[in-house]
Amino acid sequence: MIELADTVTIIVIALYLLLMIGIGIWASRKIKNTEDYLVAGRSLGFWVFVLLMIGTVCSGMSLLGVSGLGYRAGWPTIWEQIFVPLAIGFCVIFFGVKLHNVAKTAGYVTVQDYLAHRYESPTALRSLSAVAGIIVSLIYLVGQYTAIALVLMWLFAIPLWLALLIATLVTMIYTTIGGLYAVAWASLIQSIILVVGVFVMAPVIIYKAGGLTHVDQVLAGINPNLVMPWNPSGAFAPVYIFSFAIMLMVGLACAPHVINNVLAIKDVKYFKWAPLAAFLIYGAAMFLLKFTGFAGLVMVKGGVFALPNLPNAPDSIILYGIQYSLPVMALWAVFAVIVLAAVMSTTDRLMLTIGAMCSWDLYKKILRPGASDKSVLLLSKIIVVLSALGTMILAINPPVMLASLIWMGIGIMLSTFAVPLLAGLYWRGATKAGALASMLIGLVTSLVFGALNYFSIVLFGYNFAKIPVHFSFYPLVISLVVMYVVSMLTAKTHEKILDETQTGWFISKQ
Amino acid sequence: MFGLPDITIIAVGGVVIIVIIALVYWGLTFRGHD
């Protein structure tokens, strides 16, 4: 274990955590009603929005898992660094423009508001999508807390439960009191820390390994496939990369905690350059992180340092790279803050999303339509606290194969939400029954395929761990077929609703 | 270049350039207004 709990470390971490709570207190003064709390009064400017999107998409695994995957499998995994940043652009362009425009007049607070409106299903589809959203958000949230647990286990001499408790409490406090205002402004700070930290630290690690050209030459010597753009077969072969790209780009774009951000922007004109800005900033940081994984492999093979003999040791490669390349304890503390920033910027948004789906979609819109704004706001805050404490308890015993868990969460989001959302926005023939069926079957089949794949189950003589594509591809196709067939057989949506929700084969009516 | 085979440079670099061109095109042509 790296002994980090010295005075400088504690001061650096404490300053960061106090700053986050300070943002929460400042933001809490802006909260007058539920809309302020859940969509920041639709007031986010360009950079706050761009960095909120980066902070939401960039999770704890972006720091550890990206370099860990680079260490394990080399250049064939580089596509992750293109399609994760592109998820922000996909979300803005294909979901954001229409949703924002309709939301402004219809007053949407969550994406479930849109689904209920578009499919004329104020109860059934809203409930199903909220419950599905809560399930996938919880899976994803456990993955995030697991990431923070893994990092804190390595970085601190204090017990895991204590470190986890401190990080959870701070995130919970500022999210509970400040809502999306606090989450957005905290993400602004967190994303700047994250991006600047990666831009400063990653080049030093790559330089210490001999530079990128040297690193690639050594990789080619270890195994020529490590410098190829894809593997000849199996994982990261071309067909797998295709399904992986769709899973990352579309799955993340329609994830409830990501897509709800588009409802909070102040002006739709910010969507003009947000996709490019997010792609360039986040993409550059992600490429650098992947290169640190390559550099780590070269250093391990060169005997510079060794990784412990643990199943998830490659996910710690960046920690060892920093330990070797930047032998200054204060800088490790700064890196700890970077990891905290990455994890907290996603967990805060996830907790708020779960709070919104419970209090707004299930309580206010279904169970108690007459509920006062004050009671909805209070319930949102209670749910944020409960979701934080519940997932923290689950993360005390972190599962192995963290990257798989998080990809599974994204895959389930893709299979559940992509078809009803895209069909709803762009196909006037999509019906309520089609949306319900495709969402339900997408959710169930993705859970089944995910379990078959995760636990390497052999069925009818076929090993589901060896399927040639990411498991989410099958439920996505099934969901698509179900949407088409059921919509063709059931009653059409009223033209008035289709016009109100700007449904049709266009992105924006100019 | 960078110690990589040409196919890697062309494939990865090509996709990155295509994505950037597409996003620049989006930025230049999107005329969204509230």
Note the main attributes of this structure:
heterodimer; A: 510 residues; mainly alpha; two-stranded antiparallel ribbon; B: mainly alpha; rod-shaped
What would you say this structure looks like, in words?
The complex is a heterodimer of chains A (510) and B (34). Chain A is mostly helical and 510 residues long. Chain A has a single domain, classed as Up-down Bundle (Sodium/glucose cotransporter). Chain A has helices spanning 7-28, 34-39, 46-57, 60-73, 80-106, 111-118, 124-155, 160-208, 212-222, 238-253, 256-259, 274-301, 317-325, 329-367, 373-395, 402-426, 432-454, 473-489, 495-500; strands at 458-459, 462-463. In chain A, 60% of the residues are buried. The model of chain A has no long low-confidence stretch (mean pLDDT 88). By secondary structure, chain B is mainly α. Chain B has one domain (1-34). In chain B, 71% of the residues lie in helices and 0% in strands. The model of chain B has no long low-confidence stretch (mean pLDDT 93). The chains are: A mainly alpha (510), B mainly alpha (34). The A-B interface holds A 75, 78-79, 82, 86, 89, 93, 97, 101, 104, 212-217, 219-220, 227-230, 267-269, 271-273, 275-276, 279-280, 283, 508, 510 and B 2-5, 7-8, 11-12, 15-16, 19-20, 23-24, 26-27, 30-34.
